[in-house]
Specification:
Number of domains: 3
Radius of gyration: 21 Å
Number of strands: 9
CATH topology of the largest domain: Butyryl-CoA Dehydrogenase, subunit A, domain 3
Bound molecules: 3-thiaglutaryl-CoA, flavin-adenine dinucleotide
Strand content: 5-15%
Structural class: alpha+beta
Shape: globular
CATH class of the largest domain: Mainly Alpha
CATH superfamily of the largest domain: Butyryl-CoA Dehydrogenase, subunit A, domain 3
Low-confidence stretches: none
Length: 391
């Protein structure tokens, strides 16, 4: 039989599940990543840098920021089209997908869904264009998986609000123009739109990251930050509002992880077909082929799951615990694929000349943020048993 190579995601023709328009979106994003990210990302990663101000207008011009939202300059794309865009972005680097997720699914979504008309007019068109950068402050130094226990407080002073506290591990904070900040009120939790230049707001860049290096991450200090009454998101009542933003972002992550895994597997198959040991390509060893086959099977399954959940999202039937199935499975499998690819690449697997170790290191963060694997297991467990492990 002639030697024939099939790309991992072509194995069962998953493309047939996509419309022509969806494939076109995917191809456009793949091209922009080829042009604007792939040639440079290894160096950005080493330097712990991402040119957010350069990339955001490019992504904005393509309609990728707040892509699944409608009005205010947003593209109004389907959940599947947005997911495919996330897949291609994360094939470049998880930090690039993070930039788009945090902007569109967290900061913009919070304003779009819970904001007043004036807040929407002020921020959304500029954020959609990539002219203003947003971040989303939920996690605190002492409260990550359990945001209901947050300490950041908002108290009334006449008509104004005063915010005190801190938010930790906030993507884009060092470069952001605006933050959506979640805070404890006298009666529950609420969300605030906080300009980053408001007096009392400070940002410390978190250094020494060994993962998601091409993504700015910061701690936000809030020290007596005085905001007008109009800064509060009028529709954001309680923790549920913040968690519903996470449901949006987690969908993009379930897709994005497939992109990172695909990039690793593509790279590894090419490498294994051209690297000879014991007189033949390492791809010809049965043990290598078993690894490649198992990884390709998991990749197809992850894609099928993402398409299924995306279609449910577009039909308006998607439930949060279903999103947890996608986030848990696809990120866990993507990380397993990245690690396995690393073994096949031998010593070159640890080199920044190839994308595999970078993706593997990134996926460690992706496994943790937007709800750790354990949190998603418990969300699914609660649905299966009716018993709440958090209570
Ligand atoms: P619990 O009592 O379960 O829920 C409170 C209310 O919220 C509702 N709800 C949700 N609604 C929409 N979407 C979801 N995913 C929801 N999860 C829960 C729930 O029905 C309830 O409604 P109601 O009407 O009864 O009031 O709340 P809990 O305090 O027990 O917490 C549950 C838990 C642990 C699942 C939740 O706290 C959680 O998901 N924790 C993980 C925290 C997390 O994921 N943080 C992410 C921060 S942002 C980030 O990481 C960005 S990374 C950058 C990037 O994306 O690239
Ligand atoms: P913890 O909550 O302390 O958890 C530590 C361990 O304990 C985990 O294994 C966890 O699963 C386990 N655990 C906790 N509770 C339970 C339980 N009930 N049962 C079983 N096990 C449990 N946050 C934002 O708000 N905005 C952002 O933009 C943002 N960006 C991020 C970017 C990066 C690079 C990273 C790494 C994180 C980011 N985060 C952001 C924070 C992220 O959401 C949190 O790290 C995550 O929610 C976990 O919180 P934690 O790190 O405090 O871990």
């Amino acid at each position: 039989m002639p030697r024939r190579r099939t790309s991992p995601l072509d194995l069962i023709d998953v493309d047939r599940l996509l419309t022509e328009e969806e494939r076109a979106v995917r191809d456009v994003v793949r091209q922009v990543i080829d042009d604007r990210v792939r040639p440079y990302v290894a160096e950005w990663y080493e330097e712990a840098f991402l040119p957010v101000r350069e990339l955001a207008p490019v992504f904005g011009g393509l309609g990728l920021l707040g892509m699944h939202l409608t009005g205010y300059g947003c593209a109004g794309a389907s959940a599947v089209a947005y997911g495919l865009a996330c897949m291609e972005l994360e094939a470049g680097d998880s930090g690039v997908r993070s930039l788009v997720s945090v902007q569109g699914s967290l900061a913009m979504y919070a304003i779009w869904r819970f904001g007043g008309e004036e807040q929407k007019q002020r921020w959304l068109p500029r954020m959609a264009a990539g002219a203003a950068i947003g971040c989303f402050g939920l996690t605190e130094p002492d409260h990550g998986s359990d945001p209901a226990s947050m300490k950041t407080r908002a108290r009334r002073d006449g008509a104004d609000w005063i915010l005190d506290g801190s938010k930790m591990w906030i993507t884009n904070a060092p470069v952001a123009d605006v933050a959506v900040i979640w805070a404890r009120l006298e009666d529950g939790l609420g969300g605030f739109v906080v300009p980053m230049d408001a007096p009392g707001v400070s940002v410390r860049t978190i250094g020494h990251k060994l993962s998601l290096r091409a993504s700015p991450t910061g701690e936000i200090g809030l020290d007596g930050v005085r905001l007008p009454a109009s800064a509060r998101l009028p529709g954001a009542e309680g923790l549920k509002a913040a968690l519903s933003c996470l449901t949006e972002a987690r969908q993009g992550i379930a897709w994005g992880a497939i992109g990172a895994a695909r990039e690793c597997l593509d790279t590894t198959i090419t490498y294994a077909c051209t690297r000879d040991q014991f007189g033949k390509p390492i791809a010809q060893f049965q043990l290598t082929q078993a690894k490649l086959a198992d990884m390709a099977v998991e990749l197809q399954k992850a894609f099928l799951l993402a398409v299924h959940l995306g279609r449910a999202g577009d039909a308006g039937t998607l439930r949060p615990e279903q999103v947890s199935v996608g986030k848990l499975n696809n990120v866990r499998e993507a990380l397993a694929i990245a690690r396995e690819c690393r073994t096949i690449m031998g010593a070159n697997g640890i080199s920044g000349d190839y994308p595999v170790m970078r993706h593997a290191a990134n996926l460690e963060s992706v496994l943790t943020y937007e709800g750790t694997s354990e949190i998603h297991q418990l969300i699914i467990g609660q649905r299966l048993t009716g018993l709440n492990a958090f209570a």
